[in-house]
Design goal:
Length: 828
């Protein structure tokens, strides 16, 4: 709670005073210090200043100032668990709780992309946020807590930025976080192997005059390169404590957090506010602007005036808006503009460029005194590897080879554990069928839930292998190279390389991929990337492919699989082209594509990646898939009473009788086979008259031209919940696991054996390889699942785009499946 939230008459004790140096100093001089009792005397309406009593003085503060003073009330203290107050809380007790409250420290991690912020955040808090060796992995603030040395840390992991100007969404995001959430300490994470670029952000933090501790991360790299850095001296030059760390191994993190505590408690001797010297002219202008701010007595003091003055000279849009909103006499902005033209007149260069130059001058001066550069082995290796992997001629073929390897392993290696899980599920089903009392409950558990969920679960190994490859490419830094190589290709479709990583992530799951487009600066580029992401075949579609490819293309599975993925990519390209020509004309924005050095990923992080994905997959299996499967089963199970075309029960009874009579093993086997066939026929006849059958009939006319049977329609419909559900639904509909021979129990076998029951095609197989292919193409393209649809709506801010995508993709899917069927039947 803060002071601004208190009502007149309320009493509270101060827990901490936030805000920057000079404001903080002034406020503390007035008596607003930790442990002091403060009372609200009166409040002016319309967010005017309020009057407070502290140490017997009456002091008035504006709301945005009072906002920075954290307090605790007796009521809040009573809620704290350790306290057992009886009756009135006396001041001493309240002060004890203040000390407890004061031990909450808000820490924000700020730094360049790819410097190890998330690794640090994950290591201390045990969180599992995504880490990757390319920039733009973290797109939203992540929160977690950490208890250490009697203090409770509230940690925030922020997106990476090179600067705190307001150019990109990330920069704006981080800046807003620092201003609005006022973290007690900013931990500036720095990549030690790239000091010059990383310290640029630090100079901006210095201007902001906030409490900073530097985590000199990747210190292992610095040491390995043979470089020498005088950390103590650099720390004194910057006025900021510096702690070397290796985030991936957790080295230096205790020291880091001890230092954070020291700085928080104002115990560190190295902390001081350094003024970066911007040269005579700029400093004179800063002085002039500060003077006008000072004269505007009603102007808020919560932001460093020097920082604001510098930002005005940089013509920073955010600062200009802030001043416009808060200035009372119009002098501040006017002085700002006047000073800019004065500087530019004298130095004939933009004031912004002069300030940037001065910052780099400050950095290189500081480094000249403290750093003896080494010879970076990592970059040496990286350059050598890049000579081959991104070479003009060998780059692309190697990239395609890696892709081939990925899909080959996914399919081939994955098929072994898949068989084990498959037979495990089958055995469990048999067992439960025997032990549970026969009836509806038994049917629901075995034919409904186990069959449906089981048929999706068997694809877990494939998904794990796919993610193993993707994680490995991300963590080594190869993914960034792939984006680099694809830049030219992406330009051809009106996008650039930055769109490539979200698209590749789309192979995993479209939802995070769509979120990852936040790193794209240009709005239309971003929108376009979001709209083509659903064509990237996500891992949820993989089970469908594997099932049908295994059933109908057992001789060349990898090539069909790759063909499907390539079709998706091709459609994305065509769509991008089409939209670029019609919906929006995107302009190319220049941008830097970072190529981080190659790193050998830690075993820990790879395993964690895989586990994260499998956890998500299993959650889906236990959630949306389970529900969908039960709904499908219920709709297929009822109504129980239907009219059959023949008297199955009598025929089956006859066969059973015949089996009992004979002792000839061959005859017995034939009877058993006939019995199974009859049973399946009866089941499917019942199914076609169930509620599900009726829905199927309803949509059949729409999909009949594609050669799809009604059951396929049902599967597609349920697949809009999640694409894996297509498989689960097929499992329930075809009741795998109940054939005579083990081979015949599989869903693949059932699919091959599936026949039309009635109509002119009665007795013909439902699936030919052509129909199966058309079905696969349809599954690849048609409407994204609910999760993706809502992600599109959320990220574009418009439901219109989401609905547009559902229509567009479904329409396109229909056309292409139709084409596959027509062309296919023509040739085969
Ligand atoms: P972020 O973008 O700042 O959040 O950085 P990440 O935490 O995602 O890390 C980027 C890459 O650097 C990953 O590949 C990490 O494994 C690696 N990394 C992080 N910290 C260290 C470190 O201290 N030493 C080394 N050698 N690698 C690190
Ligand atoms: Mg990150």
């Amino acid at each position: 709670m803060n002071l601004a939230e208190l009502h007149p008459g309320a009493k509270a004790v101060i827990v901490k005073v936030k805000g920057h140096g000079s404001f903080r100093k002034r406020i503390m001089e007035m008596g607003f210090i930790k442990g002091q009792l403060v009372e609200v005397i009166k409040r002016t309406p319309f967010r005017g200043p309020s009057e407070y009593n502290v140490m017997g003085y009456h002091v008035s503060l504006r709301p945005n100032e009072a906002h920075l003073i954290e307090v605790i009330t007796p009521e809040m203290a009573a809620d704290l668990p350790e306290q057992q107050f009886e009756g009135i809380i006396d001041l001493d007790k309240l002060k004890t709780s203040v000390n407890q409250e004061g031990k909450n420290i808000q820490v924000a991690f700020v730094g360049n992309p790819n410097c190890g912020k998330t690794s640090l955040f994950n290591f201390v808090s045990g969180a599992r946020e995504h880490v990757g060796n390319y920039s733009g992995v973290t797109v939203e603030a992540q929160y977690n807590t950490y208890d250490f040395n009697g203090y409770h840390f509230l940690l925030t992991d922020l997106p990476g930025t090179y600067s705190l100007t307001a150019y990109t969404p990330e920069e704006l995001y981080v800046r807003k976080h620092i201003f609005h959430n006022n973290p007690d300490i900013v931990v500036n994470v720095i990549d030690a192997s790239n000091l010059e670029r990383n310290l640029y952000l630090t100079t901006q933090l210095i201007d902001m005059d906030i409490k900073v501790v530097i985590a000199l991360n990747m210190y292992d790299d610095l040491k390995n390169s043979g470089a020498f850095l005088d950390i103590d001296k650099l720390s004194r030059l910057l006025g900021i404590p510096i702690i070397p760390t290796v985030a991936t191994k957790g080295e230096g993190l205790n020291e880091l957090f001890n230092k954070v505590i020291d700085v928080y408690e104002n115990r560190d001797p190295n902390v001081r506010h350094v003024h970066i010297n911007y040269g005579r002219e700029v400093e004179q202008s800063i002085q002039a602007i500060r003077q006008t701010i000072k004269e505007d007595t009603l102007f808020p003091v919560s932001m460093s005036h020097r920082f604001l003055a510098i930002k005005l000279l940089e013509q920073d849009g955010h600062a200009i808006r802030f001043v416009t909103k808060h200035q009372v006499n119009k002098d501040i902005l006017k002085t700002g503009y006047h000073e800019i033209s004065r500087i530019e007149g004298i130095l004939s260069e933009s004031s912004e460029a002069i300030i940037t130059d001065a910052k780099y001058g400050f950095i290189s001066g500081a480094l000249k005194e403290t750093l003896k550069p080494g010879y970076s082995r990592r970059w040496f290796h990286t350059n050598a590897i890049d000579k081959i992997l991104t070479h003009k001629f060998s780059g692309m073929p190697l990239f395609l080879f890696f892709m081939f390897l990925m899909f080959y392993a996914t399919f081939q290696l994955g098929s072994y554990p898949m068989d084990w899980i498959d037979s495990g599920v089958g055995l469990l089903n048999e067992f439960l069928k025997q032990v549970l009392p026969a009836g509806m409950f038994n049917d629901l558990i075995t034919d409904g839930i186990i069959t449906g969920v089981g048929s999706v679960l068997v694809f877990l190994p494939n998904i794990l292998i796919l993610f193993l490859f993707i994680s490995f490419m991300e963590d080594t830094g190869y993914m960034a190279r792939a984006a680099f190589m694809m830049d030219k290709v992406m330009h051809k479709i009106g996008l650039h390389g930055r769109s490539f990583i979200p698209l590749i992530m789309g192979f995993g799951c479209n939802v995070p991929a769509i979120m990852a487009t936040r790193t794209i600066r240009n709005r239309t580029d971003r929108l376009l990337t979001i709209l083509i992401t659903p064509f990237m075949s996500c891992s949820a579609r993989l089970p469908v492919y594997i099932l049908f490819v295994g059933a109908f293309f057992p001789n060349n599975p990898t090539s069909v699989l790759i063909g499907l993925y390539l079709t998706g990519i091709l459609l994305a390209v065509v769509t991008a082209h089409l939209f670029n020509k019609t919906l929006f004309k995107s302009k190319e924005a220049p941008f830097v594509m970072e190529l981080p050095p190659y790193r050998i990923p830690s075993f820990r992080s790879i395993v964690k990646h895989m586990w994260d994905k499998s956890e998500q997959y299993l959650k889906k299996v236990g959630g949306v898939i389970l529900i969908a499967v039960v709904i499908i089963w219920v709709m297929g199970y009822f109504p129980r009473e239907v009219e059959f075309s023949k008297d199955y029960h009598t025929e089956m009874a006859l066969l059973k009788h015949q089996m009992n009579q004979t002792s000839d093993s061959i005859e017995m086997e034939t009877c058993q086979r006939q019995l199974t066939t009859l049973h399946i026929q009866m089941e499917s006849e019942h199914l076609s008259q169930s509620y599900l059958g009726k829905v199927g009939r309803l949509i059949e006319p729409v999909i009949a031209p594609l050669g799809f049977e009604w059951r396929m329609g049902i599967a597609l419909l349920s697949g809009t919940a999640a694409k894996e559900v297509v498989v689960g639904t097929m499992g329930v509909l075809l009741q795998a696991n109940e054939g005579a021979e083990p081979d015949e129990q599989t869903l693949m076998f059932r699919l091959r054996e599936l026949k039309y029951e009635a109509g002119e095609k009665a007795g013909q197989p439902v699936f030919t390889p052509i129909i199966a292919l058309a079905f696969l193409v349809f599954v690849l393209i048609y409407s994204p699942c609910i999760g993706v649809v809502s992600a599109i709506a959320k990220e574009t801010g418009r439901w219109r785009w989401a609905l547009f995508m559902v229509t567009y993709t479904t329409f396109l899917a229909w056309i292409l499946a139709f084409a596959v069927k027509q062309i296919g039947t023509l040739f085969f």
